[in-house]
From TrEMBL:
Protein keywords: Cell inner membrane, Cell membrane, Membrane, Methylation, Transmembrane, Transmembrane helix
InterPro entries: N_methyl_site (IPR012902), Pilin-like (IPR045584), T2SS_GspH (IPR022346)
GO biological process, one term: protein secretion by the type II secretion system
TM ranges: 7-28
GO cellular component: plasma membrane; type II protein secretion system complex
Family the entry assigns: Belongs to the GSP H family.
Pfam families reported for this sequence: GspH, N_methyl
Membrane topology: Single-pass membrane protein
Name used for this protein in its record: Type II secretion system protein H
Amino acid sequence: MRPIQNGFTLIELMVTLVVAMILVGVGAPSLKSMYEGYRSDSEIRKVNQSLQFARSHAVSYGSRVTMCPIVSGSCNADWSKGFKIFLDNGTLNKIDGDDEVLTVIGAFNSSDFVSFSPKAINFTTDGLTSAGLFIYCPGSKSSPESMGLQINASGTARFSTATNLNCN
């Protein structure tokens, strides 16, 4: 009579690993889409919070507050590199003498695209701004996971319900 052996044989272990690899290979593409959806949602909410922060400070300080991507002290149009929010007491859309940087938001994911037509969002002392649509596209300019933030002239923002957003 043979003794009872507890454990796996090498063949059983190899078959289990092959089955696991097949399952991971099938499931991985859908995980990418899910990850892009979460990233898009997270980043557009960060922009929304930044807008609320800027508007709140414009009203609280009784001063113009600007939110824009900065290159060499001036606003530019490349929102993907992140942006600064600052009290804009001097030259419009430029950090100069009397301006105070309130916060800095770092760059978005390097594989993502951001689209926003004006190069700056300026809040007046009563919280008003110009209207626009901020679009975040994870992974590609026409990603199905793209999200938008509709900015109203009253200074408030809402998540866009459009389904065909792209960052072209």
